[in-house]
Amino acid sequence: MRISLPWSRNSSRDVDAEYDEGAVVISERKHEAAGLKAVGVALQRDIASMGPMRTAASLLRLNQRKGFDCPGCAWPEEHGGRKPAEFCENGAKAVAEEATKRVVTPEFFARHSVADLGGRSEYWLSQQGRLTHPMVLRPGEQHYQPIDWDDAFDLIATHLRSLGSPHEAAFYTSGRTSNEAAFLYQLLVRSFGTNNLPDCSNMCHESSGTALVDTIGIGKGSVTVDDLTQADLIIVAGQNPGTNHPRMLSVLEKAKENGAKIIAVNPLPEAGLLRFKDPKKVHGVVGHGVSIADEFVQIRLGGDMALFAGLGRLLLEADDRAPGTVVDRDFIAAHCANFAEYEAHARAVDLEAVYEATGIDAAQLQRVADMMVSSQRTIACWAMGLTQHRHAVATISEVVNVLLMRGMVGKPGAGLCPVRGHSNVQGDRTMGIWEKMPESFLAALDARFGIVSPREHGFDTVDAIRAMRDGRVKAFVGMGGNFVAASPDTAVTEAALRNCALTVQVSTKLNRSHVVHGRTALILPSLGRTDRDVQNGRKQVVSVEDSMSMVHLSRGSLRPPSVEVRSEVAIVCGLARALFGPDHQVPWASFTSDYDTIRDAIAAVVPGCADYNARVRRPDGFQLPHPPRDRREFRTSTGKANFTVSPLQWVSVPQGRLILQTLRSHDQYNTTIYGLDDRYRGVKGGRRVVFCNRADIARFGLTAGDRVDLVSEFTDSEGRLQERRAEDFVVVEYQTPVGNAAAYYPETNPLVPLDSVADRSNTPVSKAVVIRLERRS
Predict the structure, then answer these.
(1) pLDDT at 6
(2) How far apart are CA 631 and CA 687, in angstroms?
(3) Of 372, 394, 418, which marks where a domain is finished?
(4) C-alpha span between 32 and 65 (Å, rounded)
């Protein structure tokens, strides 16, 4: 095989002690987000990783019309002219991670056994750099070794063909996969004969999709960026935009300039929800910035359903006092079903139970209700804080209820806004990455390609782990992401993967999923968003969908880390040709050489994508149709928007225990750890910290700075008490609600039981983990 030497300044050594965790230092938390500090941190990180020239070349093209889409979050760009710096601190860090000049070569794997790598931290692994060559770990071997691409594809194909059934394989997808690669990936999987397509959506916004399909007929949000700037009230619930979607803050600032009020609903007082200092504006540099939240509702974990249920009752009572001014009965009569049942249920909501569940008082609940009453254009935004509870689907349905009651769907400046995290996670679902795509999609796919797609629903993420654990799935293929670190119940997930005969990871960088492997394991290095993609002598472009259904092109321009690195499209097509042979009815070879042919196929199969190639080349791309937003059309079981009724649920704190939420630090994005600091929460040099209220620390006989183990407790399906343990965390005093705690994932993923999932959506319950603290001796 050909081994091409990479061009990196760091090709002969791996980064070692520089990226080990040290002693954690705790300082005062910040009360504002962004500002010049964010610019300095981002530039320092980028230059250290990429050098000044590569930094300039990448940041000037980041989120630009002729550039590439940010590999971080899915927040959309504003239409019209783009700002020269159309990115945030964490977007710049995401680029530094991907466009780094550090590389992981075959020589690296020769120096490091799998056992050695398995003892390293997630941060250390990611900081080694970009993968440069396909690698294989054969049964009984201790080191990954280089393998030719054709041999790698033949090895995978041989394993897949040897399975007793196509359903014995699972094909995972990360949200960073392009539309073109996602479409081909699901086409390969369905041509193979299974719908086992777990993806990262299963672990984040699946609850949103489930609730929205039931209530408005489509599992996507109903607003645009322009709507946010036109709103006069924006509710931000269970979301921390300062860390997770920083560019959203500039839109919120514009909304406030236009007169909007903002309500922040969150257990923690996050810097981005308190004050925003836009470094591109004078007041963000020399002034105090802009106060974001007009009302901060510090809610107890799991209390959001009770909050919106209580608001529903207060809105009805306000309409009683001024009939026809609060409840939009014309909208309800024309477009909604089940309102009478909802109204009766909402009027009976026990407000004392609401105060107990939420931790807020009657005065604040009334203030929030009054703000909703006075608003003519209300938007509700939410993220993982609402979706990762057992009653998540019912919670989001309550959010929908209060907006439908006021006619706030399908009109400018109003609507529903689930804020997706991972870039193109929404596009993956549009392209068919789902274990239960509707018959209309499968029939169109079959008609286009002459295949017979399976109709039996496949495994989502949680069910795929169970199937691997039980030996029902024997091969795992991961298209991007870090499955091990992203999934719940880490020990169970790792054992499940090790139970496989084959694991394949398509990746840009080293991560934990490469050292937790099946009996045979392969690492296939792929291009990233920043990389130039040339096929058949022609530069190719890909497309992505943002959180608000806008589809646009992404054009990488940087030199890849090695000539051996292939695009995701080329990897999928290469595997398909090895698996199905050269005479397969799907034209895999032409797809590889010209991505326009893929987009022509998408146009024929995917609803709303007609004339895809032409429309996606418009300056800002095109927006996919959304019937509730576009014409107040609701394609639900009733043909109308559905009010729903659910019994009030919340999370009670057991005696002597805490309810833990897992969350990101400011120096990470999903499972990618950019650094060991959380500047906004005052944490420096480490990640194993647990944030607790002062009263809880005293109640447990602890002091801030003590080291503890976190032990989660749950009852299994047979009624037996079970435990999970995460060791050695520093106790940090923080302004959390009494009885609630917070800590970073993936360090706390071991505490989330595999069988603790949201009703109906099967999403892991990562925001409501019952734990106790055990002092370390």
Answers:
(1) 32
(2) 47
(3) 418
(4) 30
- Residue 591 tokens read as 């797809």
- Please say whether the beta carbons of 571 and 526 come within 8 A: yes
Domain that holds residue 220: 206-418
pLDDT digits (tens, 9 = 90+) for 632-655: 999 999 999 999 999 999 999 999
In a shared domain, residues 62 and 190 = no
Residue 267 lies in a domain: yes
Report CA 149 to chain centroid distance, whole Å.
Answer: 30
Residue 544 in 3-state DSSP? strand
Residue type, 162: S
| pTM of this prediction exceeds 0.85 | yes
CB proximity list for 632: less than 8 A, separation 6 or greater: 334, 335, 409, 410
Distance CA 463, CA 443 (A): 25
In a domain, 109, yes or no: yes
Q: Please state at what angle helix 568-580 crosses helix 179-192, rounded to 10 degrees.
A: 20
Q: Which residues contact 40 (CB under 8 A, 6 or more apart)?
A: none
Which of 53-67, 101-115, 713-727 is modeled with the greatest confidence?
Answer: 101-115
CA–CA gap between residue 561 and residue 102 (Å, rounded):
9
CA distances 334 to 328, 331, 632, 640, Å, are 10, 5, 10, 8
One-letter amino acid for residue 100 of the chain? T
What CATH number did the domain enclosing 218 receive?
3.40.228.10
pLDDT surpassing 90 at residue 32: no
Q: What is the torsion angle, in degrees rounded to the nearest 10, for the CA atoms of residue 722, residue 725, residue 730 and residue 734?
A: -40
225 & 124 share domain:
no
199 DSSP assignment: B
Contact between 454 and 169 under an 8 Å Cβ cutoff? The reply is no
Question: How far is 622 from 427, CA to CA, in rounded Å?
Answer: 13
